[in-house]
Design goal:
By secondary structure, the chain is of the alpha/beta class. The chain contains eight helices and seven strands. A seven-stranded parallel β-sheet has the order 3-2-1-4-5-6-7, sandwiched between helices.
């Protein structure tokens, strides 16, 4: 399995799962453009890691919730890399609250970034893929989009929306030989977990059949598989990477 010389975009690629995905695609020889919003130092480090692994990296500051920024980034990548073969939508936020305390701003922020952001980048990339009659789209969702989670109506709604979006888009672009799939991680050990209350971590671990938190690299390897030709007959699927947290 190789992604040599494939041109890829990874949104939210400066930290956590997104950074691991960018590094893995680079390790397999891809040219990787990562989107970031405020973590300049981290984004530059990921680019350096991609290039050290034999790939080519590019960091672009862009707001995924902006339709114009998404189109601008896709245009820039096509110009600089000479095309686009892979889109990985990963950027996301959480603003947790029970619904009777949730503000309109908390709702809008999550939907605009987690759901509209995926639309923005797909809307910009799909015409490129349709014209060349090839392309891979992988959308990072969550097991909480499948099952829902207390205190996360906004987040769960956005992640469930991504699943429906993935399946519908797979139907729309399949005849152009474009594969669209999703990965649904469970609790993954990222920097965000450092501030999680001990009780939350204990409850999550009790759910996980394998008895440990997942690692970002374990999600990245599944994404890379879906971006490869080995997975050319897989589309419209949601693959859980959760250690059995939700069975």
């Amino acid at each position: 399995m190789t992604l040599k010389d494939r041109k890829a975009i990874v949104t939210g690629g400066s930290l956590g799962i997104g950074a691991a995905i960018a590094r893995e695609l680079g390790r397999q020889g891809a040219l990787v453009a990562l989107n970031y919003r405020k973590h300049d130092t981290e984004a530059k480090q990921v680019v350096a890691d991609v290039e050290a692994a034999g790939g080519k990296g590019l960091a672009i500051k862009a707001d995924v919730s902006s339709f114009a920024d998404a189109q601008g980034m896709v245009d820039q990548v096509v110009e600089k890399f000479g095309g686009l073969d892979i889109l990985v939508n990963n950027a996301g936020v959480n603003r947790d609250s029970v619904i009777w305390k949730m503000t309109e701003e908390q709702w809008d922020q999550v939907i605009d970034i987690n759901l509209k952001g995926y639309f923005n980048y797909c809307r910009a990339a799909v015409p490129v893929f349709r014209e060349q009659k090839s392309g891979k789209i992988v959308n990072v969702t969550s097991i909480n989009g499948l099952r829902g989670k207390f205190g996360q109506t906004n987040y769960s709604a956005s992640k469930a929306g991504i699943i429906g979006f993935t399946k519908a888009l797979a139907r729309e672009v399949g005849r152009a030989s474009v594969n669209v799939n999703a990965v649904a991680p469970g609790l993954i050990e990222t920097d965000m977990m450092k501030d999680a209350p001990e009780k939350v971590l204990e409850a999550a671990l009790a759910e996980i059949v394998l008895g440990r938190l997942g690692q970002p690299e374990e999600v990245a390897s599944v994404v890379a598989f879906l971006c490869s030709d080995v997975a050319r007959h897989i589309t419209g699927e949601v693959i859980r990477v959760d250690g059995g947290q939700y069975i």
